[in-house]
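DATA SHEET
Item: assembly model
Revision: 1
Owner: S.N.
Input lines:
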Amino acid sequence: MARGTEVRISGLGGQGVVLAGVILGRAVVRNGKYAIQTQSYGAEARGSAAKSEVIISDEPISFPKVRRCDILIAMSQSALDTHIKDLKEHGILLVDRDMVKKLPKVQATVLRIPATKAAEAELESRMYANVIMLGALTRATQIVSKEAVEEAISESVPAKTKGKNLKGFKIGYLSLK
Amino acid sequence: MARGTEVRISGLGGQGVVLAGVILGRAVVRNGKYAIQTQSYGAEARGSAAKSEVIISDEPISFPKVRRCDILIAMSQSALDTHIKDLKEHGILLVDRDMVKKLPKVQATVLRIPATKAAEAELESRMYANVIMLGALTRATQIVSKEAVEEAISESVPAKTKGKNLKGFKIGYLSLK
């Protein structure tokens, strides 16, 4: 298996197929190997089918090829510094302004969201900064509808944190009104 | 953005970057579009960096190319029927034997794990079938160490369900003793 081992996990929606893939990917790197973990969503995901793939290798994996992105969300300074070079000209950059203090000059629309601060102030935990960023993303772009993200949040987070996650999403959405 | 929109979410470990990508991928398909959502784990993941990518398209996305897999986990009959053609000869097939009743003849090592039944009997919920399958996978193959998966489970599941998830993993691991 010199070229890497490919593992596919398949099942029904609700069986935790995606979580199993995420766990496996995270475990692999703990063993000093490299992993790419992929979910495809499309026609087949609309029914009840779920699929997650993990490619495991002893070497860095160049597949899928790193491509330039249209939209970059950076939730830390080091993330921004690492990824800004891959943002396309005239792309959209969303940063958590509480975590990213130094912004380079870029040919991009830059949106500074107070995600960590709002999460701590209004939801009592910075763990909700991610859904605040998703809210801002949804408002700022046409890539996905508000309702679709709300439904996806509801099915993806533990029941106990659903209310706060949805509230965080709304905070992010309204932050760009 | 005729060729699809690429979104990269980046930040630190613990900020929910992967979850944000999963939510976005799931939201996109609710809008009738297609998405591929990817995490890469490797050198950069070993620090505290986290990255998740979502490619969004109006058309089915053929990237990353579907390739044949070395190991297939099928947690439902329809999943098996859909994916079995992609399993390499002499690959490893793990099925949840409570969900997969009809096995085709294949040139593969077939392992039938009582995942759903054990999850219900010993953990009071079939939602733990996924970690039971991961336990069996870990025992049956050399792709990842037991300890690494246990650590990855601990960092990936809600604190409240950690004990049952780890117990489920152990049940799956020991099922192939």
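QC remark: Chain B touches chain A through 92 residues (CB under 8 Å).
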